[in-house]
Amino acid sequence: MTTSPNPTITEKQSNIIPFLPTGNFYFSYGIQAFKKRRFDSAVKWLKKAIELSPDEPLYPCQLSVVYTEVGSYHAANQVLSDVVANFGEEYVDCYYLMANNYAHLGLLSDAKKYAEKYMARAKEGDFEEAASQLIEMLDSLEEDEAENDYAFEDEDELILYQETAFYHLEHEEWEEALPVLHEMMQLFPEFTLAKHQYAYALFNSGNEEEAIDLERKWLETDDKDIHSHVNLATFYLQNDQREAAFQHIEPLRNVFPMHEHQKLAVAETLTRAGYYEEAVERFRGLKNKIVVGRRGYYKWFSIASYQTGKPSRALQLWEKGCKQFPHLSEEGGPWIHQ
């Protein structure tokens, strides 16, 4: 009996066209994930797209946008710098994107430089209006800072109050600091740092609920106030209310202040919260000699260094801090703080 031949499995397999994903395939997945705010997935798919299509500049540019969205401004600018280096300066949009990232980082001179670079090279570019507004904002910030510096330049009385309050705070003399700060709040209401220092001293003197209520009230007025977030994060952490603390820590992880004392406050808070790698980066960015010489700088930079596997640097910082602030030696060392 004769039977008709059936194709073998091997023959069937030979008729199947294998699916080979392209860079565009992964790119489309990356865009979908980005729109759904699944940023980790977006980064994964976009990196695959770049790997398969290294000659396509659109893919790394989109990756930089994802990094910007999650606050990884340094990473975003590294990607954009690579695009310009690899594909040429005709990709002028990169300059605006870099300017925007530098502005978020608080690096105003770099932000202005790249915004002006974009304006000089772009011919009716998509970001022309945004770049122009960014330059105006940066110019305004520079003027405000200059005016503020001038406004306080001759305020000998304010300086005297500042130095007195600073001494008490650095030496944890809370009861002595409170009346000085209270007077500052009455005499110099425009010097807003005093009220946050007052709340901090209040909390540490045992009036915890009052201090928290004050900061929560001030935060309702300005929900982006860095010092309110810093103080509330610190207060909640000290009370082991970590869930409440992280509502204020998360905003701080994505903010890069212009002023040195704010930079220090954020770095200290990130250390308290256990974000040691991020804290070390913030500490390393501090340049102002007055800020670098503070008790909090030595203590918390030492702790962050120790927790990131740099015990020698930690010990060096701790010893320097103990020389200037002998009471610091009573806290044992950076290895005590976990």
TrEMBL record:
<dbReference type="InterPro" id="IPR011990">
    <property type="entry name" value="TPR-like_helical_dom_sf"/>
</dbReference>
<dbReference type="Pfam" id="PF14559">
    <property type="entry name" value="TPR_19"/>
</dbReference>
<dbReference type="InterPro" id="IPR019734">
    <property type="entry name" value="TPR_rpt"/>
</dbReference>
<protein>
    <recommendedName>
        <fullName>Tetratricopeptide repeat protein</fullName>
    </recommendedName>
</protein>
<feature type="repeat" description="TPR">
    <location>
        <begin position="23"/>
        <end position="56"/>
    </location>
</feature>
<keyword id="KW-0802">TPR repeat</keyword>
<keyword id="KW-0677">Repeat</keyword>
<dbReference type="InterPro" id="IPR051012">
    <property type="entry name" value="CellSynth/LPSAsmb/PSIAsmb"/>
</dbReference>
<dbReference type="Pfam" id="PF13181">
    <property type="entry name" value="TPR_8"/>
</dbReference>
